[in-house]
């Protein structure tokens, strides 16, 4: 069990996110950071998402330019952020001290003390995000016990990244109060346990309108051609984390083979039944890992589908 948990620590890109009073920030610091997301609480205290001002390593800077170029197509995004809760002893929250819980099956969207581990944390996080102004729209228990998900969106690409990073920060702060650790590791446990992803839902104005399914399939074709380039930016470790997660089982596709299908949870890209039946809508890219940088994911999708240019993997 110890070896299975050895890689659970999440690898998150080196951005800095913290709440503070902008009016009290020294002028020297104001020239160092980019204030990309400001969410004001009902009592007027802002939560500010900060990133170092360096175009060379600032993925938000690059994403912002891609969003600007693609704006006329009105791309919209939603993301499903999965995470796993751990006790301080390194075991998943409320798992038996000796052995494992019952096999996966009854935990997904489950209720009851023997199926839902950590709901108080999940609901506290949801309320805190609403209070802070994060565009959070849902939450649910996941397939693996002690694993949960929250959803951000529907919103434009830059806001998706800003709000997801803020929601991640808030989750870690909530967990701190409960004495629990939130992990974004894409495969926190080896064996027959689901990994953690950050599935992203995407559409353009053409996809959402009549006969939009044709544009959805055109986008899927483009993603097939740039599959490996996307895999390099779809986790926090240049593709190595997804290599552990995307093995063709536990509701995942295969890492080095692109696939798609209607209502297929084992495909790289899933087309919802509603989109297929209505002839328009959106698609779900199931490849991004739980520790992905949302700015990099948004940027890659826009480059491949709309801008028809190479994916930025730097």
TrEMBL record:
GO MF entry, a single one: glutamine synthetase activity
UniProt entry tagged with the keyword ATP-binding: yes
Pfam families linked: Gln-synt_C (PF00120)
Record key words, sorted: ATP-binding, Cytoplasm, Ligase, Nucleotide-binding
Domain of life: Eukaryota
Family: Belongs to the glutamine synthetase family.
Name under which the protein is recorded: glutamine synthetase
Organism: Octopus sinensis
Gene name in the database record: LOC115231737
């Amino acid at each position: 069990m110890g070896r299975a948990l050895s890689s659970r620590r999440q690898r998150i890109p080196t951005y800095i996110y913290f709440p503070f009073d902008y009016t009290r920030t020294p002028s020297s610091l104001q020239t160092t950071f980019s204030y990309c997301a400001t969410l004001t609480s009902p009592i007027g205290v802002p939560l500010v998402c900060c990133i170092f001002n360096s175009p060379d390593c600032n993925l938000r800077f690059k994403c912002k330019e891609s969003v600007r170029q693609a704006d006329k197509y009105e791309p919209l995004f939603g993301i499903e952020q999965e995470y796993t809760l751990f006790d301080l002893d390194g075991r998943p929250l409320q798992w038996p001290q000796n052995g494992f819980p019952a096999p996966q099956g009854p935990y997904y969207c489950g209720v009851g003390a023997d199926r839902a581990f950590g709901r108080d944390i999940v609901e506290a996080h949801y309320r805190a995000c609403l209070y802070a102004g994060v565009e959070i729209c849902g939450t649910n228990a996941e397939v693996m016990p002690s694993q949960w998900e929250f959803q951000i969106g529907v919103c434009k690409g830059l806001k998706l990244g800003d709000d997801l990073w803020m929601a991640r920060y808030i989750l870690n702060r909530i967990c701190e109060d409960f004495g629990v650790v939130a992990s974004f590791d894409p495969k926190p446990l080896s064996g027959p346990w689901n990994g953690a992803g950050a599935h992203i839902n995407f559409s353009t104005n053409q996809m959402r309108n009549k006969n939009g399914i044709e544009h959805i399939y055109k986008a899927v074709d483009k993603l097939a051609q740039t599959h490996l380039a996307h895999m390099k930016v779809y986790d926090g470790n240049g593709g190595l984390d997804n290599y552990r997660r995307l093995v063709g089982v536990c509701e995942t596709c295969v890492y080095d083979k692109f696939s798609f299908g209607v209502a297929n949870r084992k495909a790289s890209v899933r087309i919802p039944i509603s989109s297929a039946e209505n002839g328009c809508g959106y698609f779900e890219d199931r490849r991004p890992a739980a520790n992905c940088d949302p700015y990099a994911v948004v940027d890659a999708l826009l480059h491949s589908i709309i801008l028809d240019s190479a994916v930025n993997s730097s």
